[in-house]
Amino acid sequence: MKLDERDFRRFDGKFYPQVPTDLIVDCFGHKQVHFRQTHGHGAFVYLNAKRRQFLHAQQYSDSFDLVAWVRQHQAQLSLLITETPIPELKDELPQFIVPNAWEFYKAAASYSRQLYDGNVIAITGSVGKSTTRLMTVELLRALKRHVNTNIGNENVRQVVIPLLATTLQNPDDLVAEISINALNNRDGRQGVTARYYAADAAIITQVGGAHLAELSNVDDPLMFLAERKSRIFDEMPATGRAILNYDMEPRVYRYLVDVAHQHTDHLYAYSYADQHADAYVVKTEDFRDHTAVTMAILGETVTANLSMPGKGVILDLLAACLTLKSLGLPLPDVTNLFMNFEALNSELKFYEIPTSHGKVTIVDDTHGSTLHSVNNVISVFKARGQFYAGQKVLVMETGEDLGEDAAAYNLRFKDPLLTSHVDALIGYRDDAIKPLVDAVQPQLKTGFYQELAPVQAAIDDLPNDSLVIIKSSDGRKYGSDLWTLPEKLLHATSEV
């Protein structure tokens, strides 16, 4: 799909210096990366300092020169959207002058959505949304379908608009990951930004286990989050599909069902074990390097080998497969499709390193730490720990966003840890993890350190064929340095 000068009549603005007669626009964006697939027909939306402040987006550097930037990237552009005419460029690039660039951006994306007749699949949740998105994309591309999706894990409200505008490229499917930021009502009476997706299929992977600190003044944080997540159904057509995790807290699941029913009658549920769901696990068989999972998906039985461990990734795959089937699409051969699957960033990545007593397998899970993701790590020990002859060790700190009740939340892991085949727990840095370390004694070996050096030394002293999972918050956001430990261990290995 392409827009020309006639399409711009519906928008609040005017061309400068005159109406172009041969305009073609097939892409809108406000960053260079948004134009990587365009061929000279991109429209650059200049969000000035005022608009960026409104969006809580990063400001341009003091050295940024709009004229120089446009000239540098002019081969990718056919139009400049700005609130103030740029006389220096009047003979080089057509301009469309608007009163509010953010409002124009939303209007352009909304118009693109109206023209688009492919599938929009939207995904949100407190945990698992990125992996579910990536697996959904993998399944669709295995069917030879053209799929657009988020860049990296960008999922906040200012991402919604340029991503939705990529429907001008007429992909078969748009798969969009949505954070709570895009589901908060920050655009006043116009509602949440994510509503512009008007999703044909909307997945909620989980509610709760994150954002607890910032909700400390809310009477019922879980239901507060459920209401926010339910906004993914806003503007869903009556033909839309709502895909829900049946294993959520029952009252949360019932609430989401009620909200979804206000928009569509097409509700589907997936579950790890409950066979009343539309998709569920029939059986699993664990091996050292993968798990074979047999699933029932709307009456179809399929088996997939997953190199990525844990219950969480199995639930994510169930959601992805159920979504395709609910939309009337066939499933590709999934037998080995996810044998080398990797999630974003540092999520359950395996490394083997030499140590003083042989070799140790390090699992880097330092991208983030919620209550659900810690439980997932514990499930990894249960599934894969039996295949390691050495010690099974969990190195962890308190998850992000847990607030004043962090120590109490951490103590919930005591019983799961004691039945997980974990041999040792090493707590790191913060006082809120220390009560859990004390609580699992003497059943588990323990340690508590506030510096990385003794943690690194303890790992180096482990017996051959040990398994170590490092679970931390994203220190790049929350201040801890535990996320750097896997890199330090690998760097030390390279120097040996």
From TrEMBL:
Gene3D superfamilies per record: Mur ligase, C-terminal domain, Mur-like, catalytic domain
Keywords from the UniProt entry: ATP-binding, Ligase, Nucleotide-binding
Its protein name is: Mur ligase central domain-containing protein
Q: Which GO terms describe its molecular function?
A: acid-amino acid ligase activity; ATP binding
- Give the InterPro entries listed for this entry: Mur-like_cat_sf, Mur_ligase_C_dom_sf, Mur_ligase_cen, MurCDEF_CellWall_CoF430Synth
Q: Where is the Mur ligase central domain?
A: 123-323
